[in-house]
Amino acid sequence: MMSLMLPGVAVTYNGEEIGMTNTDVSWEDTVDPAGLNCGEEHFMDQGCSRDPERTPMQWDTSENAGFTKAVKPWLPVNENYLKGINVLDQSQDGSDSHLLVYRNVSQLRSAHEFTSTGLFSTNEVFAFARGSDHAYPIIVVINVMEGEVSVSLADLILEMGDSFSGQVLIRSSGPAEEGNALGTKVDLNNLTLAGNQALILI
Fold first, then answer.
1. Domains along the sequence of the chain with CATH
2. Would you give the DSSP letter of residue 185?
3. Cβ neighbour number for residue 11 with a 10 Å cutoff
4. CB 155 within 8 A of CB 174
5. What's the angle, vertex CA 8, arms to CA 132 and CA 182, rounded to 5?
6. What's the pTM?
7. What's the chain's average pLDDT?
8. Measured by CB atoms within 10 angstroms of the end CB, which terminus of the chain is less buried, N or C?
9. What angle do CA 182, 19, 8 make, to 5 degrees?
C-alpha cells in the first residue's frame, strides 16, 4: 500500500504481489556472482548474495511451483508455495488474499490522479493522505509493529483540510478477527490497528 499509493513511479518486483518471501539458498545452489565472490563463509552476509530474493515466481502448487518443467530450476523454489503463497491459490482465495489486495490498491492508484500529500508518523504508525480536486481523498495508515496499536489521525486530517468518513476501503490481508472489516467505519481519532495491519480509508 505504501509503495503503490505514495507519489512517484510504482514498481512491482517479481512475487511482491503475492507476498513472496526470501528463500534460504545454500552455498551449493548459489549462482549470484556477487555471492560467490564473498565466499562460502560470507555469501549470506548482508550485501553479498542476491539469490534469496530472486527465486522462481510461484504460480501454483505443481512441481517447481509451475515455474518450469525442468527437473531443477536455476534457483530453488521456496517451499511456502505449497502453503498459499502462489498465484493460483490467491486468485481463488476471495477478499482476504494478498493478491486481491494488491490488485485493488493498483486499481485505486490507476483510477485517480492524486496531486496532494500529507504525512504523519509515530514510532508505531506511518500514515499519509492523498487528495486532489478530482478525486475523493484517502488515508493510508500502516502499523509497522507486530503488536496492536491505537492512533489518532486528527493532525493528518487537519493538515489535509479534507473531510473523511472513516470508511475502510481496502484492508491488508489477514485474519478477519483482526478487525476493521471492509466497508465498516472506524474512529479516526482513536483507530486501533492489529499488528502489521494496513488500511486505506475514505
1. 114-201 (2.60.40.1180)
2. B
3. 8
4. no
5. 60
6. 0.86
7. 92
8. C
9. 80
